[in-house]
Write the structure tokens for this entry.
Amino acid sequence: MKDVHKFDSDPDGHLFDPHVRSAMTAFLGDGDTLALEVAAAVRTAFHAVERMRSHGSEGRGLSSGALDILIRLSAAPEDGVSIGDLAQAAGVSSRNVTGLVDTLERDGLVRRVPDRHDRRSVLAQITPDGRTWLESFRRPTQLAMAAMFRGFTPSELTRFRHLCLRLADNQQQLAQHLQGEGR
């Protein structure tokens, strides 16, 4: 299995990936590798969660983006949600959401419906099959995530969530800053 990682512990008992540390040390020379090691650890954790998520999707092959859209639609008003609103909520482009909705629509999990309030607009709406699919996905997801985060205290999970979202917020602020410089 090529996705198996072998981790070591530093003197304080914190895990690290010796292969990543070695590669980052070679890349930077004598610079501090910690931020790059953390970025690699975030990618490793993301891929671990994705492998578990895709394992639980029972071969249906929904990407994490499509699953996110389906979950958002399940909590949306019954009339549906515009592609633009879905994109904004998910933090991705409308073009990306259009492709995800196309995939979900092809699978019968989502449909496009006319907006009752604006004839020019189309809304995405979860179908009964989409709700059924999510219902069958719910319990295995709960069990898988409980297993993935086994041994974490509620305080650690809260802190972990906070740190991940701080990282995402820093990226958004940096992107806005860089966009401002490009003008």
